[in-house]
Automatic annotation (TrEMBL):
<dbReference type="Pfam" id="PF03734">
    <property type="entry name" value="YkuD"/>
</dbReference>
<keyword id="KW-0472">Membrane</keyword>
<dbReference type="GO" id="GO:0008360">
    <property type="term" value="P:regulation of cell shape"/>
</dbReference>
<dbReference type="GO" id="GO:0005576">
    <property type="term" value="C:extracellular region"/>
</dbReference>
<feature type="signal peptide">
    <location>
        <begin position="1"/>
        <end position="22"/>
    </location>
</feature>
<dbReference type="Pfam" id="PF17964">
    <property type="entry name" value="Big_10"/>
</dbReference>
<keyword id="KW-0808">Transferase</keyword>
<protein>
    <submittedName>
        <fullName>Lipoprotein-anchoring transpeptidase ErfK/SrfK</fullName>
    </submittedName>
</protein>
<dbReference type="InterPro" id="IPR041280">
    <property type="entry name" value="Big_10"/>
</dbReference>
<keyword id="KW-0133">Cell shape</keyword>
<dbReference type="InterPro" id="IPR038063">
    <property type="entry name" value="Transpep_catalytic_dom"/>
</dbReference>
<dbReference type="GO" id="GO:0018104">
    <property type="term" value="P:peptidoglycan-protein cross-linking"/>
</dbReference>
<dbReference type="GO" id="GO:0071972">
    <property type="term" value="F:peptidoglycan L,D-transpeptidase activity"/>
</dbReference>
<keyword id="KW-0449">Lipoprotein</keyword>
<comment type="pathway">
    <text>Cell wall biogenesis; peptidoglycan biosynthesis.</text>
</comment>
<keyword id="KW-0573">Peptidoglycan synthesis</keyword>
<feature type="active site" description="Proton donor/acceptor">
    <location>
        <position position="325"/>
    </location>
</feature>
Length: 392
Protein backbone atom coordinates (compact mmCIF):
# COMPACT_ATOMS: atom_id res chain seq x y z
CA UNK A 1 0.00 0.00 0.00
CA UNK A 2 1.35 3.46 -0.86
CA UNK A 3 2.11 5.67 2.12
CA UNK A 4 0.95 9.27 2.19
CA UNK A 5 3.49 11.48 2.18
CA UNK A 6 5.50 16.96 12.68
CA UNK A 7 11.02 18.81 18.04
CA UNK A 8 9.59 20.99 20.36
CA UNK A 9 9.43 19.61 23.86
CA UNK A 10 6.29 20.66 25.67
CA UNK A 11 6.93 22.95 28.61
CA UNK A 12 5.04 22.15 31.79
CA UNK A 13 4.74 24.98 34.28
CA UNK A 14 4.61 24.18 37.99
CA UNK A 15 3.18 26.88 40.26
CA UNK A 16 4.40 26.72 43.82
CA UNK A 17 2.44 28.53 46.51
CA UNK A 18 3.47 29.25 50.07
CA UNK A 19 1.17 30.36 52.89
CA UNK A 20 2.37 32.56 55.73
CA UNK A 21 1.67 31.49 59.33
CA UNK A 22 0.41 34.08 61.81
CA UNK A 23 1.50 34.20 65.46
CA UNK A 24 -0.68 35.00 68.46
CA UNK A 25 -2.71 38.18 68.15
CA UNK A 26 -0.80 41.10 69.58
CA UNK A 27 2.55 39.35 69.56
CA UNK A 28 5.46 41.57 68.61
CA UNK A 29 7.04 40.78 65.29
CA UNK A 30 10.42 39.14 65.45
CA UNK A 31 13.35 41.20 64.23
CA UNK A 32 13.86 40.82 60.49
CA UNK A 33 16.71 38.59 59.44
CA UNK A 34 16.04 38.96 55.72
CA UNK A 35 18.86 40.15 53.52
CA UNK A 36 18.76 41.67 50.06
CA UNK A 37 19.40 38.93 47.52
CA UNK A 38 22.83 39.22 46.00
CA UNK A 39 22.95 40.15 42.33
CA UNK A 40 24.19 37.61 39.88
CA UNK A 41 27.96 37.40 39.72
CA UNK A 42 27.79 36.15 36.12
CA UNK A 43 28.98 38.91 33.77
CA UNK A 44 26.29 40.20 31.43
CA UNK A 45 27.00 39.45 27.79
CA UNK A 46 25.04 39.10 24.57
CA UNK A 47 26.04 37.51 21.27
CA UNK A 48 23.94 36.80 18.18
CA UNK A 49 24.17 34.69 15.06
CA UNK A 50 24.37 34.49 12.06
CA UNK A 51 27.72 36.24 11.78
CA UNK A 52 27.58 39.73 10.33
CA UNK A 53 27.33 39.80 6.53
CA UNK A 54 27.00 36.02 6.25
CA UNK A 55 25.57 34.95 2.89
CA UNK A 56 24.10 31.85 1.28
CA UNK A 57 22.22 30.87 4.45
CA UNK A 58 19.35 28.34 4.52
CA UNK A 59 15.73 29.48 4.31
CA UNK A 60 15.27 28.00 7.80
CA UNK A 61 17.90 30.28 9.39
CA UNK A 62 17.14 31.22 12.98
CA UNK A 63 18.53 34.14 14.97
CA UNK A 64 20.74 32.61 17.63
CA UNK A 65 20.80 34.39 20.99
CA UNK A 66 23.56 33.62 23.52
CA UNK A 67 23.06 35.50 26.79
CA UNK A 68 24.82 35.22 30.13
CA UNK A 69 23.80 37.10 33.25
CA UNK A 70 20.49 38.17 31.73
CA UNK A 71 17.73 37.32 29.27
CA UNK A 72 16.50 38.24 25.80
CA UNK A 73 13.74 40.86 25.94
CA UNK A 74 13.18 41.53 22.25
CA UNK A 75 14.03 40.44 18.71
CA UNK A 76 13.28 42.45 15.58
CA UNK A 77 13.96 41.09 12.12
CA UNK A 78 13.52 43.31 9.07
CA UNK A 79 13.67 42.75 5.32
CA UNK A 80 13.43 45.77 3.02
CA UNK A 81 12.09 47.71 6.00
CA UNK A 82 9.26 45.25 6.65
CA UNK A 83 9.00 43.35 9.91
CA UNK A 84 9.37 39.56 9.75
CA UNK A 85 7.09 37.62 12.08
CA UNK A 86 8.51 34.99 14.39
CA UNK A 87 8.92 33.96 18.01
CA UNK A 88 11.61 33.10 20.52
CA UNK A 89 12.10 29.45 21.42
CA UNK A 90 10.92 28.52 24.89
CA UNK A 91 14.51 28.06 26.06
CA UNK A 92 15.48 31.49 24.70
CA UNK A 93 18.31 30.15 22.54
CA UNK A 94 16.98 31.30 19.17
CA UNK A 95 14.28 33.26 17.38
CA UNK A 96 12.37 31.21 14.79
CA UNK A 97 10.69 32.83 11.76
CA UNK A 98 6.99 32.08 11.46
CA UNK A 99 7.45 30.97 7.84
CA UNK A 100 10.41 30.17 5.59
CA UNK A 101 12.67 33.08 4.71
CA UNK A 102 12.68 34.33 1.13
CA UNK A 103 15.48 33.09 -1.17
CA UNK A 104 18.29 35.49 -2.12
CA UNK A 105 17.09 38.12 0.33
CA UNK A 106 18.90 40.32 2.87
CA UNK A 107 17.73 40.50 6.48
CA UNK A 108 18.71 42.62 9.48
CA UNK A 109 18.18 41.22 12.98
CA UNK A 110 18.41 43.21 16.22
CA UNK A 111 18.38 41.36 19.54
CA UNK A 112 17.87 43.17 22.84
CA UNK A 113 18.69 41.66 26.23
CA UNK A 114 18.44 42.89 29.81
CA UNK A 115 21.06 41.91 32.36
CA UNK A 116 20.43 40.79 35.91
CA UNK A 117 21.98 44.12 36.92
CA UNK A 118 19.31 46.04 34.98
CA UNK A 119 21.49 47.05 32.03
CA UNK A 120 20.07 46.71 28.51
CA UNK A 121 22.12 45.98 25.41
CA UNK A 122 21.34 45.33 21.76
CA UNK A 123 23.27 43.52 19.04
CA UNK A 124 22.51 43.62 15.33
CA UNK A 125 23.53 41.39 12.44
CA UNK A 126 22.85 41.35 8.72
CA UNK A 127 22.76 38.29 6.49
CA UNK A 128 21.56 37.05 3.09
CA UNK A 129 19.76 33.80 2.30
CA UNK A 130 20.68 31.30 -0.40
CA UNK A 131 18.90 30.97 -3.71
CA UNK A 132 16.06 28.49 -3.74
CA UNK A 133 17.62 25.02 -3.30
CA UNK A 134 16.95 22.48 -6.01
CA UNK A 135 17.91 19.21 -4.29
CA UNK A 136 14.71 18.81 -2.33
CA UNK A 137 13.44 15.81 -0.39
CA UNK A 138 9.73 15.05 -0.26
CA UNK A 139 8.34 15.18 3.27
CA UNK A 140 5.04 14.02 4.69
CA UNK A 141 3.07 14.39 7.91
CA UNK A 142 0.33 11.94 8.87
CA UNK A 143 -2.01 14.55 10.32
CA UNK A 144 -4.64 16.54 8.47
CA UNK A 145 -6.06 19.79 9.82
CA UNK A 146 -9.54 19.47 11.24
CA UNK A 147 -9.13 15.74 11.81
CA UNK A 148 -9.98 13.84 14.99
CA UNK A 149 -7.66 11.03 16.08
CA UNK A 150 -7.39 8.39 18.79
CA UNK A 151 -5.49 8.80 22.06
CA UNK A 152 -2.43 6.87 20.82
CA UNK A 153 -1.97 8.96 17.66
CA UNK A 154 1.70 9.86 17.21
CA UNK A 155 2.89 12.84 15.20
CA UNK A 156 4.59 11.15 12.24
CA UNK A 157 7.00 12.97 9.92
CA UNK A 158 8.35 11.06 6.95
CA UNK A 159 11.15 11.65 4.42
CA UNK A 160 10.41 10.13 1.03
CA UNK A 161 13.14 7.94 -0.47
CA UNK A 162 15.78 9.59 1.75
CA UNK A 163 17.58 8.64 4.94
CA UNK A 164 18.43 11.65 7.11
CA UNK A 165 22.05 11.10 8.23
CA UNK A 166 22.37 10.39 11.93
CA UNK A 167 24.54 13.49 12.46
CA UNK A 168 21.74 15.71 11.11
CA UNK A 169 18.76 14.22 12.95
CA UNK A 170 18.87 16.37 16.09
CA UNK A 171 18.98 19.58 14.02
CA UNK A 172 16.13 18.35 11.83
CA UNK A 173 14.04 17.41 14.87
CA UNK A 174 14.51 20.94 16.26
CA UNK A 175 12.54 22.19 13.26
CA UNK A 176 9.50 20.10 14.23
CA UNK A 177 7.13 21.80 16.67
CA UNK A 178 4.27 20.29 18.67
CA UNK A 179 2.00 22.21 21.03
CA UNK A 180 -0.74 20.51 23.03
CA UNK A 181 -3.67 21.96 24.94
CA UNK A 182 -3.64 20.95 27.74
CA UNK A 183 0.18 20.71 27.90
CA UNK A 184 1.58 17.17 28.08
CA UNK A 185 5.15 15.96 28.28
CA UNK A 186 6.31 14.46 24.98
CA UNK A 187 9.35 13.65 22.86
CA UNK A 188 10.65 12.47 19.47
CA UNK A 189 12.20 9.20 18.35
CA UNK A 190 13.79 8.31 15.01
CA UNK A 191 12.87 4.96 13.46
CA UNK A 192 15.75 4.79 10.99
CA UNK A 193 16.52 7.86 8.93
CA UNK A 194 13.27 8.30 7.06
CA UNK A 195 10.68 8.55 9.85
CA UNK A 196 10.55 10.38 13.18
CA UNK A 197 7.62 10.07 15.63
CA UNK A 198 6.44 12.25 18.51
CA UNK A 199 4.32 10.88 21.36
CA UNK A 200 3.38 12.00 24.86
CA UNK A 201 4.69 10.05 27.85
CA UNK A 202 1.20 8.62 28.35
CA UNK A 203 -1.67 8.46 25.89
CA UNK A 204 -3.05 11.87 24.95
CA UNK A 205 -5.74 13.15 27.29
CA UNK A 206 -9.13 12.85 25.56
CA UNK A 207 -10.14 16.15 23.99
CA UNK A 208 -6.55 17.41 23.59
CA UNK A 209 -5.96 19.92 20.81
CA UNK A 210 -2.69 19.58 18.91
CA UNK A 211 -0.94 22.18 16.76
CA UNK A 212 1.94 20.83 14.71
CA UNK A 213 4.45 22.56 12.44
CA UNK A 214 7.08 20.80 10.36
CA UNK A 215 9.25 23.79 9.42
CA UNK A 216 11.42 22.01 6.86
CA UNK A 217 11.06 24.16 3.74
CA UNK A 218 14.62 24.84 2.64
CA UNK A 219 16.10 23.28 5.77
CA UNK A 220 19.33 21.25 5.28
CA UNK A 221 18.71 17.52 5.74
CA UNK A 222 22.27 16.39 4.98
CA UNK A 223 24.13 15.19 1.88
CA UNK A 224 23.32 18.44 0.09
CA UNK A 225 19.56 17.85 0.30
CA UNK A 226 16.85 20.20 1.64
CA UNK A 227 13.27 19.89 2.85
CA UNK A 228 10.59 20.43 0.22
CA UNK A 229 7.95 22.51 2.00
CA UNK A 230 6.41 23.66 5.24
CA UNK A 231 3.62 21.52 6.68
CA UNK A 232 1.21 22.29 9.51
CA UNK A 233 -1.91 20.81 11.07
CA UNK A 234 -4.32 21.58 13.89
CA UNK A 235 -6.18 18.48 15.08
CA UNK A 236 -8.20 17.13 17.98
CA UNK A 237 -7.84 13.97 20.04
CA UNK A 238 -11.22 12.28 20.44
CA UNK A 239 -13.19 12.95 23.61
CA UNK A 240 -13.41 9.20 24.27
CA UNK A 241 -10.48 6.82 24.85
CA UNK A 242 -11.01 3.67 22.77
CA UNK A 243 -8.77 0.60 22.59
CA UNK A 244 -8.62 -2.92 21.20
CA UNK A 245 -6.91 -5.84 22.97
CA UNK A 246 -6.22 -9.09 21.12
CA UNK A 247 -5.17 -12.18 23.06
CA UNK A 248 -3.82 -15.21 21.20
CA UNK A 249 -4.44 -17.44 24.23
CA UNK A 250 -8.19 -16.83 24.19
CA UNK A 251 -8.50 -16.05 20.45
CA UNK A 252 -10.58 -13.00 21.39
CA UNK A 253 -10.50 -9.26 20.77
CA UNK A 254 -11.89 -6.96 23.46
CA UNK A 255 -13.04 -3.44 22.62
CA UNK A 256 -12.98 -0.84 25.41
CA UNK A 257 -14.28 2.70 25.65
CA UNK A 258 -13.02 4.87 28.51
CA UNK A 259 -11.79 1.69 30.17
CA UNK A 260 -15.10 -0.19 29.99
CA UNK A 261 -15.60 -3.35 27.90
CA UNK A 262 -18.16 -2.70 25.16
CA UNK A 263 -17.73 -5.79 22.96
CA UNK A 264 -15.83 -9.08 22.87
CA UNK A 265 -15.17 -10.74 19.50
CA UNK A 266 -13.71 -14.06 18.35
CA UNK A 267 -10.58 -13.84 16.19
CA UNK A 268 -8.25 -15.98 14.14
CA UNK A 269 -4.66 -14.73 14.00
CA UNK A 270 -1.68 -15.60 11.85
CA UNK A 271 -0.83 -19.28 11.54
CA UNK A 272 2.55 -20.52 12.77
CA UNK A 273 4.28 -19.94 9.42
CA UNK A 274 2.91 -16.37 9.14
CA UNK A 275 2.24 -15.23 12.72
CA UNK A 276 0.64 -11.97 13.73
CA UNK A 277 2.93 -9.46 15.43
CA UNK A 278 2.53 -8.98 19.16
CA UNK A 279 3.03 -5.47 20.47
CA UNK A 280 1.52 -2.08 21.16
CA UNK A 281 0.25 -1.00 17.76
CA UNK A 282 -1.92 1.81 16.40
CA UNK A 283 -4.69 1.93 13.79
CA UNK A 284 -2.89 3.59 10.88
CA UNK A 285 -5.50 3.57 8.15
CA UNK A 286 -9.11 2.44 7.54
CA UNK A 287 -10.32 1.07 4.19
CA UNK A 288 -13.94 0.13 3.50
CA UNK A 289 -12.74 -2.09 0.67
CA UNK A 290 -9.33 -2.99 -0.73
CA UNK A 291 -7.44 -5.74 -2.54
CA UNK A 292 -4.92 -7.89 -0.69
CA UNK A 293 -2.33 -9.19 -3.14
CA UNK A 294 0.56 -11.30 -1.86
CA UNK A 295 2.59 -10.51 -4.96
CA UNK A 296 3.19 -7.00 -3.59
CA UNK A 297 5.26 -8.73 -0.88
CA UNK A 298 7.08 -11.05 -3.26
CA UNK A 299 4.73 -14.05 -2.97
CA UNK A 300 2.97 -14.88 -6.28
CA UNK A 301 -0.79 -15.03 -5.91
CA UNK A 302 -0.77 -18.43 -7.63
CA UNK A 303 1.67 -20.01 -5.15
CA UNK A 304 0.41 -22.21 -2.25
CA UNK A 305 0.84 -19.32 0.19
CA UNK A 306 -0.28 -16.68 -2.29
CA UNK A 307 -3.56 -14.79 -2.46
CA UNK A 308 -5.40 -12.00 -4.22
CA UNK A 309 -8.66 -11.20 -2.46
CA UNK A 310 -11.13 -8.37 -2.05
CA UNK A 311 -11.17 -7.40 1.63
CA UNK A 312 -13.71 -5.33 3.54
CA UNK A 313 -13.45 -3.22 6.71
CA UNK A 314 -9.64 -3.30 6.72
CA UNK A 315 -7.70 -1.44 9.41
CA UNK A 316 -3.92 -1.29 8.94
CA UNK A 317 -1.63 -2.10 11.90
CA UNK A 318 1.80 -2.54 10.23
CA UNK A 319 3.58 -1.48 7.04
CA UNK A 320 4.23 -5.14 6.25
CA UNK A 321 0.51 -5.75 5.73
CA UNK A 322 -1.12 -6.81 9.00
CA UNK A 323 -4.72 -5.63 9.29
CA UNK A 324 -7.89 -6.20 11.26
CA UNK A 325 -10.50 -7.14 8.66
CA UNK A 326 -13.62 -9.11 7.81
CA UNK A 327 -12.86 -12.76 7.03
CA UNK A 328 -16.15 -14.64 6.54
CA UNK A 329 -14.18 -17.63 5.19
CA UNK A 330 -12.53 -18.23 8.60
CA UNK A 331 -15.55 -17.80 10.89
CA UNK A 332 -15.38 -21.50 11.82
CA UNK A 333 -11.77 -21.04 12.94
CA UNK A 334 -12.30 -17.79 14.84
CA UNK A 335 -12.01 -18.33 18.56
CA UNK A 336 -10.49 -21.78 17.92
CA UNK A 337 -7.31 -21.71 15.79
CA UNK A 338 -5.09 -19.39 13.77
CA UNK A 339 -5.28 -19.65 9.98
CA UNK A 340 -4.52 -16.16 8.61
CA UNK A 341 -1.44 -14.77 6.90
CA UNK A 342 -0.76 -12.48 9.88
CA UNK A 343 -3.95 -10.44 10.02
CA UNK A 344 -6.59 -10.33 12.75
CA UNK A 345 -9.59 -12.12 11.17
CA UNK A 346 -13.06 -11.38 12.50
CA UNK A 347 -16.56 -12.08 11.26
CA UNK A 348 -18.27 -9.73 8.82
CA UNK A 349 -20.60 -8.46 11.55
CA UNK A 350 -17.77 -7.87 14.03
CA UNK A 351 -15.55 -6.27 11.38
CA UNK A 352 -18.29 -3.84 10.40
CA UNK A 353 -18.92 -2.96 14.05
CA UNK A 354 -15.27 -2.46 15.00
CA UNK A 355 -14.66 -0.44 11.81
CA UNK A 356 -17.32 2.01 12.96
CA UNK A 357 -16.03 1.95 16.54
CA UNK A 358 -12.39 2.91 15.94
CA UNK A 359 -10.54 5.97 14.68
CA UNK A 360 -7.08 6.32 13.20
CA UNK A 361 -4.75 6.65 16.18
CA UNK A 362 -6.57 4.21 18.46
CA UNK A 363 -4.29 1.76 20.32
CA UNK A 364 -4.34 -1.94 19.48
CA UNK A 365 -2.51 -4.38 21.77
CA UNK A 366 -1.77 -7.91 20.53
CA UNK A 367 -0.39 -10.49 22.97
CA UNK A 368 0.96 -14.02 22.93
CA UNK A 369 1.90 -14.68 19.31
CA UNK A 370 5.09 -16.24 17.98
CA UNK A 371 6.48 -12.89 16.76
CA UNK A 372 7.12 -9.45 18.28
CA UNK A 373 6.56 -6.42 16.09
CA UNK A 374 9.72 -4.94 14.60
CA UNK A 375 10.44 -1.32 15.59
CA UNK A 376 9.32 0.94 12.75
CA UNK A 377 7.01 -1.67 11.19
CA UNK A 378 4.03 0.62 11.67
CA UNK A 379 3.65 3.40 14.21
CA UNK A 380 5.48 1.53 16.95
CA UNK A 381 6.07 4.56 19.22
CA UNK A 382 4.16 2.90 22.07
CA UNK A 383 6.09 -0.35 21.84
CA UNK A 384 9.17 1.32 23.38
CA UNK A 385 9.43 2.23 27.09
CA UNK A 386 9.41 6.01 27.61
CA UNK A 387 13.07 6.07 28.71
CA UNK A 388 14.14 4.25 25.57
CA UNK A 389 11.87 6.30 23.33
CA UNK A 390 13.38 9.60 24.50
CA UNK A 391 17.04 8.60 24.73
CA UNK A 392 19.38 10.31 22.31
Amino acid sequence: MTRRPGFLSLALAAVLTMSACSGDKGAKPAPSTATTPARSTVPFSLAVTPAANASGLPLSTEIGTAVTGGRVTGVEVLSAGKRVEGALRADGTAWVPAKPLTPSTSYTATVTATGDDGRTESRATRFTTMSRPGNRVGTGMYLFSGGTYGVAMPVVVEFVDFQVPEAERAAVARRLFVTSDPPQLGGWHWFGGNQVLFRPKEHWKPGTRLTVRAALDGHPLGNGRYGDQERAASVTIDASARSLEVDNATKQMVARKDGQVVRTMKVSLGKTSTPSSSGNLVVMDKLDKTIFDSSTYGVPATSPDGYRSEIHYAQRLTWSGEFIHAAPWSVGDQGVRNVSHGCVNVSWEDAEWVFGFTAIGDPVTIRGTERTVTAGNGWTAWDLPWEEFTQA
